[in-house]
Amino acid sequence: MANVFSNIGEWVTDRAPGLMPVYRKHMTEYYAPKNFNIWYYFGSLALLVLVNQIVTGIFLTMNYDPSASGAFDSVQYIMRDVEWGWLIRYMHTTGASLFFVVIYLHMFRGIIYGSYQKPRELVWLLGMLIFLVLMAEAFMGYVLPWGNMSFWGAKVIVSLFGTIPVIGKDLVEWIMGDFLPADATLNRFFALHVIALPLVLLLLVVLHLAALHEVGSNNPDGVDVKHGPKGNRWDPTKPADGIPFHPYYTVKDLVGVGLFLAIAAFIIFFQPTFGGWFLEHDNSIPANNLVTPAQIKPVWYFTAFYAIVRMIPSALGTAVWGVLGMFGAIVLLFLMPWIDAGKVRSIRYRGTGFKVALTLFVLAFFGLMLIGTDSTAELIPMFFGANVDVTAIENLFGRVMVLIYFGFFVFLWLYTHLGWEKTKPVPERVTTHD
Amino acid sequence: MANEVVDLGRRRFLTTTTSVVGGVGVVAAVVPFIKSWEPSARAKAAGAPVTQSLKKIESGQQLIVAWRSLPVFIVNRTPSQLDALPKQDSRLVDPGSNGASADQQPKYAQNQTRSIKPEWLVMVGICTHLGCVPNYVGEMKPEPFDPNWQGGYYCPCHHSRYDMAGRVYQGVPAPKNMVIPPYHFVDDTTVQIGVDPQGAA
Ligand code: HEM
Ligand code: FES
């Protein structure tokens, strides 16, 4: 038996001599810093969720009907009549939310360890493109069950483009293929969700990893192991503080996978809607073009950006400002490598100003999420009494949060470009070397 | 080949012309794909006028009818709701509907009540922000979103607010007053939506 396998192996190697070197370059001879911590799990977990979305998605497609008249019922059919259909759907919907949990943590890691700084700008930019495509992918998936939240979510999101001066109205009709979200809209969103965007996503992920492997991973100390001392147990010319990705980090990542799957399984089996946070109750009502659900808000992962739209009032006869604010909030993240001219990467050695600003930024992000999830609408009467002007308080709070969100980027630019930051000395090598 | 001298100018010319012709071809080939996303002939066909009897709509009540798949609000406004309208002016973006909202109603409804007959409001119930259907909150009583609420509309999507004539309040995301469709009274108790009154343009 062993003979057969090694013969096949040889046969392939003879005909494709480039394969083994690629495997070695990216796995057994890819030397990653030895000090990765818990924050470094989320890249491989994102890959895991991506695979889950693709596999469960393919099986959902086998029973889903992408038409305005059939979509809603076909989802109910999957849930009730298709053998194990409920499991496949819950794996897909839970996967979508966990995708964003994982991605937000992955991005936050990039910020605390300065992973977007030179020379990893391209890794970051490709990551941000992934984030953008992922948001589009999640939105279109949300529309597919054609519940009443799907319908109005589609209407609102597509109408964002309607705020663009001059071409807005035509653009909205072009995207929807009708004057309202309708059969045409659902059909094209289905096509984009199941084939076009996943292909783009896969391509971007490959490029993301290729770009990372060109420059090598950053690490919690933010020091360049490539520029440190040479020579490790496997290769005298490779970084002393690097260990082969396989088997060391593949095995470490498997621990993360185990933990993650346990959490995911718990949610899928015991809390599949997560109290309305992962799957919204109002979406089990079929689409109705005459009635907007009384409690309408996006799924949790969009709520911070949604709150920005809500907090910025119209001016000069147009609603475009809120939309600009929302897209601006994402564009600024794209620009992080140029906004932050910090001399050190890791938060461990950065100035106090950076730590304070980042804390405020995170609080502002959560504050906006509180507004977007309608939590403030419940909390404000609890704190200030039932007779207060809830909207006035909410707007004040929210607008301060918006200012802090954008203020973070302004501050970071000033702080690092004008040399206000007082950093701590960065060690020569990663702190945990032996 | 046998030519020893490379004619760079000729090469550049050929490269450029090939690229331009190829580029034009690609652009032309993309057009049908872009066009395929426009509303189809079938989608454009819908849109006949709608006739509605007003007999059963009591004072203070709202009825929603579908016209071109859009919700049209028909409201029988109470005298106190009408009295409150002028008092809102200072809090509105465009109280006279002659600024940013000048095109949001036919000329014959460009007045204080934004209607043909003061009590009857006929309005496309689509928020001018991002297109949701605002909730009718007709009662004049303190609301969490406004302690001085004088009746009007509250949009669930991003909390824009309008008065009882669909005029938008200041400080909310929606920029304009809601649209008044073309309509006319067939007789005292029947309205037709989608057709202007005779003589009005
Ligand atoms: C489908 C989504 C994504 C997948 C599958 C993915 C995958 C990965 C993997 C496997 C790694 C290496 C392991 C690690 O450092 O955790 C990585 C690193 C990285 N990713 Fe992503 N990623 C995704 C999205 C993003 C996004 C949205 C961003 C941010 C905009 C981003 C920014 C980065 C950065 C900066 C690194 C280098 C981190 C370092 O070396 O410290 N990625 N990614
Ligand atoms: S759609 Fe009405 S406030 Fe945004």
Write up what this structure looks like.
By secondary structure, chain A is mostly helical. Chain A folds into 2 domains: 23-290, Up-down Bundle (Cytochrome Bc1 Complex, Chain C); 297-434, no CATH class. Chain A has helices at 2-15, 19-28, 42-61, 71-80, 85-112, 121-143, 148-160, 168-176, 183-215, 245-270, 303-311, 320-334, 336-339, 352-372, 375-384, 390-417; strands spanning 31-33, 242-244. The relative contact order of chain A is 0.12. Chain B has 2 domains: 1-38; 44-193, Rieske [2Fe-2S] iron-sulphur domain (Rieske Iron-sulfur Protein). Chain B has 201 residues and is α+β, with helices and mostly antiparallel strands. The radius of gyration of chain B is 27 Å and the shape is elongated. Chain B has a 3-stranded antiparallel β-sheet with strand order 1-9-8, with no helix packed on it. The longest helix of chain B is centred in the N-terminal third of the chain and has 28 residues, at 8-35. The chains are: A mainly alpha (434), B alpha+beta (201). Chains A and B meet through helix 7, helix 8, helix 11 and helix 16 of A and loops of B. The site of protoporphyrin IX containing FE (HEM) has 27 residues of chain A, from helix 3, helix 5, helix 6 and helix 9.
Coarse morphology of chain B: elongated
Counting H and I runs of at least 4 residues, what is the number of helices of chain A? 16
CATH 4th-level superfamily of the largest domain in chain B: Rieske [2Fe-2S] iron-sulphur domain
Residue share in helix of chain A: 55-70%
Just name the CATH architecture of the largest domain in chain A. Answer: Up-down Bundle
Helix count of chain B equals 3
Biggest sheet record of chain B: 3 strands, antiparallel
Which stretches of chain B are low in confidence, meaning pLDDT under 50 for 5 or more residues running? Answer: none
Whole-number average pLDDT of chain A?
Answer: 92
Please report the distance between the alpha carbons of the first and last residues of chain B. 76 Å
| Unreliable parts of chain A | none
